[in-house]
Amino acid sequence: PLHLTFLGIESSCDDTAAAVVRGDGTILASVVAGQTALHENFGGVVPEIAARAHAEKLDLCVEEALATAGLTLAALDGIAVTAGPGLIGGVLSGVMLAKGIAAGSGLPLVGVNHLAGHALTPRLTDGVSYPYLMLLVSGGHCQFLHVAGPDRFTRLGGTIDDAPGEAFDKVAKLLGLPQPGGPAVEAAAARGDAKRFPLPRPLLDKPGCDMSFSGLKTAVLRLRDDLVARQSGLHEQDRDDICAAFQAAVADVLAEKTRRALAAMPAPVLAVAGGVAANQRLRAALQAVAEEAGASFVAPPLRLCTDNAAMIAWAGIEAFGTGQRDGMDLAARPRWPL
Ligand code: KG4
Ligand code: ZN
Question: Where does Fe cation bind (predicted)?
Answer without folding.
Answer: 114, 118, 307
